[in-house]
Specification:
Layout (H helix, E strand, L loop, with lengths): L2 E10 L2 E11 L4 E5 L6 H8 L7 E6 L2 E2 L4 H4 L3 E4 L11 H11 L4 H14 L15 H13 L5 E5 L7 H16 L3 E5 L3 H7 L2 E6 L2 E7 H8 L4 E6 L3 H9 L4 E7 L2 E6 L7 H9 L4 E6 L4 H9 L5
Parallel strand pairs: 3-8, 3-9, 6-7, 7-8
Antiparallel strand pairs: 1-2, 1-4, 4-5, 9-10, 11-13, 11-14, 12-13
Helix pairs in contact: 3-4, 4-5, 5-6, 8-11
Length: 309
């Protein structure tokens, strides 16, 4: 395990931010960390970044214990907070050279490394621009460029797409995909769940400081999919269509929402072509009929509300 926590707990007085967290992350994994505000995501990431000490329990990165071997851990990690920070009066290249020198990268190696991360993050054309003049999306890319200077094994990203416009979010996501292809282990917290679904290999859901589960996304979706739901739109007489379907064998329930019928099928019912035929035979005109998509957002809402046990 490249990242491992055992009984990791953090208390602030009576407030329990983390409660006996057990988390194992394999090398090369891209792990999405999701949960409501205040669930413990940022606390976990700050402990792994060696910025917070746990109240009790243990966290290890590459076998080194956080708190006892933090000096050995810091060269192995790159931490990107949700807010950029200071040094905004520097030029982009000057900013990166400053941090490269902090990692004792000197001479021609520094020039090469800074050039490489500028190219990787698509910031070459901004190398002479002041950091203060950059958009929020470019500042986030610069933050990632900064933590790549020393070639860390583990990247810790706390809400890296927070506050970004759609284009900037896509650019950050594609950059992270490339870093994952390069073999980096990535831990990323985010509220933008559909983007985590495209990026991550596994997801962990945390609520009130406790890890509910950690599984591949496909397995999480399978867990919450308790049956098949159809979304049906008819041109008129929606109430009569609902009444017809409620009396039909194989249908558990029918609800209406914004003129749309939400039809919950019995578990053993998988073929819904007969439902379309039934509506047509009774002179209903169908505008749309499709199966409800169960995605990471659906799973998150059901699991954090305790709908799935």
């Amino acid at each position: 395990m490249i990242v491992q926590t055992v009984n990791l707990t953090k208390r602030y007085g009576k407030l329990v931010a983390l409660n006996n967290l057990h988390l194992n992350i394999e090398e090369g994994e891209c792990f999405g960390y999701i949960g409501p505000n205040g669930a413990g995501k940022t606390t976990t990431i700050r402990i792994l970044a060696t910025l917070l000490q746990p109240t009790w329990g243990e966290a290890r990165i590459c076998g080194h214990v956080i708190g006892y071997e933090s000096r050995k851990i810091r060269p192995l990690i790159g931490y990107v907070p949700d807010f950029f920070g200071a040094y905004e009066d520097m030029a982009v290249q000057e900013y990166l050279e400053f941090f490269a020198s902090a990692y004792a990268i000197t001479g021609q190696q520094r020039t090469r490394v800074v050039g490489d991360v500028l190219e990787l993050t698509d910031l070459v054309y901004k190398r002479d621009a002041l950091v203060d003049s950059l958009s929020r999306g470019m500042k986030q890319r610069l933050s990632i460029a900064r933590v790549l200077l020393h070639d860390p094994k583990v990247l810790l990203l706390d809400e890296p797409a927070s506050g970004l416009d759609p284009r900037a979010r896509i650019e950050i996501r594609e950059l992270l995909k490339e870093l994952h292809r390069m073999g980096k282990t990535i831990i990323i917290s985010s509220h933008i769940l559909h983007e985590l679904a495209e990026l991550c290999t596994t997801v962990g859901i945390i609520e009130k400081g406790e890890l509910k589960l950690k599984e591949p996304i496909a397995e999480i979706i399978r867990r919450v999919k308790t049956g098949t739901k159809l979304l049906i739109r008819v041109t008129e007489q929606v109430d009569l269509a609902a009444l017809l379907l409620q009396r039909t064998r194989g249908i558990r329930s029918v609800d209406q929402q914004n003129g749309q019928l939400i039809v919950d099928l019995e578990k053993q019912t998988h073929d819904f072509s007969s439902i379309a035929r039934l509506l047509l035979d009774n002179n209903f005109k169908i505008n749309e009929i499709k199966e409800e998509e169960v995605n990471l957002e659906t799973a998150f809402m059901r699991l954090t509300k305790g709908i799935v046990q």
